[in-house]
Amino acid sequence: MMIGLTSFKTLWSTAGRALPHNARMRDQPDDELMALIDRVARRDEPALKALYDQTSGKLYGLALRVVRNNGWAEDALQETFLQIWRTAPDYRASLSPPMAWLGLIVRSRSLDLLRRRKAEREHLTDEIDEAMADTLEGNSPNPMDTSLASQQAWALHQCLGRLENRQREVVSLAYLRDLSHGELAQQLKLPLGTVKTWIRRGLDQLRNCMAGFA
Amino acid sequence: MNLPQHPELLDRLASAYALGTLRGGARRRFEALAREQAPVRAAALIWQSRVASMNELQAPTDPSPAVWTRIHNLVRAESEQVAMAAARTAKVQPAPGGWLRSLALWRGTTAAGALATVLAVVTAVGLRDEMGAQIGELQAQLSAQPQIEYVAVLNDEQASASMLVTFDPKNGRLTLQRVGGYQEAADKSLQLWALPPGAAPRSLGVLSQEKLLQLAADQRDVREVPALAISLEPKGGVPSETGPTGPVLFKGALIQKML
What we know:
heterodimer; A: mainly alpha; 11 helices; 73% helix; B: alpha+beta; eight-stranded antiparallel beta sheet; elongated
């Protein structure tokens, strides 16, 4: 199963790339990113810039998905890179693929920021919920993006792809925004029972599917 | 409950735990089991890592170029701060106890009368070596000593001094000392600007929150600049090209020292 996945990934990443050397680079994005993180750990400022150039689009996309506000997402991205600058020496010990490690930092900085902003203006909470409420796009195709994704993320991508669109969206938002069933129902304007059922069925399907990759 | 005996239930709880939808008492009970039983903990970690892959699957969007400028400014300010702290600790380190040691030696020579002359010669030679070392040290200190060539006192609107700025061209360093009580909010940064005549303001860097801080600067940045200003900006500052976006808090003339 893993072999099949790897060759699919290689196929995908080499196909459609005009420049052969570029395609070769894309085959080893993890090695390249890990080398950059190692250099950042040695206080190499140009390496931080190179890491930013390679990953900021992806990480900003994630921050935006969590906080749904350009200014806040930019703040979260900024805090993320300062944290990377300070904690890059800890990266190797995390045993994570580079994008997984970076993604965790972005999500936690984004969630922190969301909590801080909500606490700062408690009276605006409803407004924020309102702004977040427009996200459940009915039957849009799978919008997930696998550029730079680790092998494990590829597996999850395959499995999420088998879920019904709205189900996938609810499962994704539960994690990305750290929302309870109740908060999801409120933000997505769905009945609580529906949210619970979708999450339960979505997780059941994910478990069955991910078992095939383990 | 012996959860590892029920792999399907364990998997279900671990996945809901990782997704974050297992809440309240159920979450606390699961966490307690995970602390006690390694297989439960392992299942939780596996699912945390699987679910976290969601972070890697979001569609990319390019952030505004200003974000990198802010990051760069803050990293710079932090590096300068670290360098300054290192320089401070290096200075405080006690000088080798050369004089004390030779004093003890002198006392020893008086006690041992017969050897006095011989020892005196030896000590004098040692003393000369030490003096040579001290002179070398002094010379090193002198060359490390900043050469202040430009000074500015930046005032706020009430004309009270808020920031003292000196420039040392030899080491390419701007030193800023906060003298007023002003402290920006945690989500704001002060940014220093050169105000060249007939040209747009040019950023000289973003200030960290310390009382005393340094910024790297080239002499070209400050030569023939009649004034400096400090504006209040979003944390990390703004790109030099856009110019100050926030209010100018402090301003003052930059004076070249003649002495």
